[in-house]
């Protein structure tokens, strides 16, 4: 584990990033229990921060603050909320280096990557600051003696629970539309990467966001996440994380009829036809295992390649991955248990007969062995029933399966319980689109097609439900009220 509850090691403020309390009602609040856990860097196991170890008392205080703020925030005009969101965009940009440094320390992210993610974080506030000004209900024509209209009203207190791999970025994806829609928020970040969200909360208050509109309680899933989900004043939950946790949260939420948005895991296909731009496809495959070391929910980690291009494509991918260095070209796995889990996948892949084209063995010396690094790994000779082919590894592991026909490509692409994303590379763009139409996934890129804040994101099948990003995501955080008036004759 890279967090240790109540570790006595560091005195307040002694760590690199310092000691962080919760952020409740516009101020920093010490944990009710007095306990802090330490957060350590997966790059070299050094302690980097002390984080408040929350409990249900802290949860109650944060929800009370959000509840107290919700009516005024809901009554603010869309122009007023837009101004706040634009201010949040500005503070994230202004402090980009600070945010990037925190996520480098807590997650071991590469500098260019943490900067890029922070700027994308700012974009969410800019985007929904614009979207909210076009946000309105409608009127319904029921004849001249009726006036009927709809309003999209906020739920009230929204809980956002985030994973570690995008930390603030993934938080912003839900925070921005939820605030834009007029909700107040209690956010629980991952216990492995809390500091960037806490810095954001402080800066948001300094930038004029009213007290109680955005609160952060840190701690574990059991200590903070579960009591938050069960709190009677919470009216909507937005969860990003694993299928197991998402299912547990959904069950609890169902008891109180609380709506949930679930952004869960994936095992997404990368389908490559032999007449496609093989260099482009190879770069996409290499990026899948290099970016965040494959710890990306939408990573396309199942390479499905037309048989006659398999050898050529694998050689190009191996060339791109040759000489990649830990800490310079790719980051570490987030925690020791996750690192062990990925090693377990390497062992099972070898045992089941997969052949490592590159990688496949842990580092035994040098900087790679100082942290939780796994070499980018590509397997050939895989079969659809192998564990490494079926399960989400959440690490730098790409598996390869050949296909002979379009039909077989589509069948293999859909042979998974997940459906988060997919990529298709085809010389014939129309064939690429036809295949994309038949893949059961929420987000599909053809020949390197782009995704951005404007493009809806979310899962089919076990990858979840509800959508984030895109203009319509604001409606995920609202409920419709219909009002009808009989007009006097
Ligand atoms: P996780 O499910 O272990 O944890 C996610 C969050 O849930 C953390 O904040 C954790 O503390 C909290 N939590 C754990 N148990 C809880 C409980 N009982 N009640 C309430 N909260 C609880 O996931 P992780 O390891 O942090 O993230 C990796 C997973 O997230 C992968 O499966 C990945 O694919 C997925 N993910 C999905 C998306 C997406 O947008 N679809 C994005 C990023 C990550």
Question: What's this, in brief?
Answer:
With 489 residues, the protein is an alpha/beta fold. Helix content is 38%, strand content 21%.
Task: Describe the fold and architecture.
The protein folds into two domains: 19-264 and 468-479, Aldehyde Dehydrogenase, Chain A, domain 1; 269-453, 3-Layer(aba) Sandwich (Aldehyde Dehydrogenase, Chain A, domain 2), CATH 3.40.309. The strands form six sheets. It has a seven-stranded mixed beta sheet with strand order 16-17-18-15-14-20-21, sandwiched between helices. A six-stranded mixed beta sheet has the order 11-10-9-12-13-23, sandwiched between helices. The protein contains 15 helices and 24 strands. With 489 residues, it is of the alpha/beta class. Helix 2 runs antiparallel to helix 4 and helix 9 packs across helix 10 (310-321). A hairpin with a 5-residue loop joins strand 7 (139-140) and strand 8 (146-154). The site of nicotinamide-adenine-dinucleotide has 31 residues, from helix 7 and helix 8.
């Amino acid at each position: 584990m890279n967090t240790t509850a109540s570790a006595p090691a560091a005195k307040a403020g002694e760590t690199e990033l310092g000691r962080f309390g919760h952020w409740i009602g516009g101020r920093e609040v010490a944990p009710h229990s007095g306990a802090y856990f330490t957060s350590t860097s997966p790059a070299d196991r050094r302690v980097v921060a002390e984080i408040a170890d929350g409990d249900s008392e802290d949860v109650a205080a944060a929800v009370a603050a959000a509840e107290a703020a919700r009516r005024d925030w809901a009554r603010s005009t869309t122009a007023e909320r837009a101004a706040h969101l634009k201010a949040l965009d500005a503070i994230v940009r202004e402090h980009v280096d600070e945010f990037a440094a925190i996520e480098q320390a807590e997650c071991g992210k590469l500098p260019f990557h943490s900067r890029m993610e922070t700027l994308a974080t700012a974009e969410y506030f800019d985007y929904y600051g614009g979207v909210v000004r076009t946000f309105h209900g409608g009127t319904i024509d029921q004849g001249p003696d009726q006036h009927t209209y709809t309003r999209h009203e906020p739920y009230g207190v929204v809980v956002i629970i985030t994973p570690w791999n995008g930390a603030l970025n993934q938080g912003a994806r839900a925070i921005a539309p939820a605030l834009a829609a007029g909700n107040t928020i209690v956010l629980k970040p991952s216990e492995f990467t809390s500091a960037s969200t806490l810095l954001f909360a402080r800066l948001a208050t300094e930038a004029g966001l009213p007290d109680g509109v955005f609160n952060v309680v840190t701690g574990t899933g059991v200590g903070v996440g579960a009591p938050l989900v069960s709190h009677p004043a919470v009216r909507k939950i937005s969860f990003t994380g694993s299928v197991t946790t998402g299912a547990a949260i959904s069950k609890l939420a169902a008891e109180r009829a609380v709506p949930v948005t679930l952004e869960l895991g994936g095992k997404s296909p990368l389908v490559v036809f032999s007449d496609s731009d093989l260099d482009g496809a190879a770069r996409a495959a290499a990026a899948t295992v290099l970016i965040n070391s494959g710890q990306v929910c939408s990573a396309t980690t199942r390479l499905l390649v037309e048989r006659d291009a398999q050898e050529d494509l694998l050689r190009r991918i191996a060339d791109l991955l040759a000489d990649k260095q830990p800490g310079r070209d790719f980051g570490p796995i987030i925690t020791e248990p996750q690192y062990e889990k990925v090693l377990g996948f390497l062992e099972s892949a070898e045992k089941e007969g997969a052949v490592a084209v590159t990688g496949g063995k842990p580092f035994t010396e040098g900087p790679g062995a100082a942290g939780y690094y796994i070499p980018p790994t590509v397997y050939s000779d895989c079969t659809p029933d192998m564990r490494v082919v079926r399960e989400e590894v959440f690490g730098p592991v790409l598996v390869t399966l050949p296909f002979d026909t379009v039909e077989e490509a589509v069948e293999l692409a859909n042979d998974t319980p997940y459906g988060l994303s997919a990529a298709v590379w085809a010389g014939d763009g129309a064939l690429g689109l036809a295949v994309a139409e038949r893949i059961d996934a929420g987000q599909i890129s053809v020949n390197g097609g782009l995704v951005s804040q404007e493009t809806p994101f979310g899962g089919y099948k076990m990858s979840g439900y509800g959508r984030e990003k895109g203009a319509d995501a604001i409606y995920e955080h609202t409920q419709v009220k219909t009002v009808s008036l009989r007009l006097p004759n």
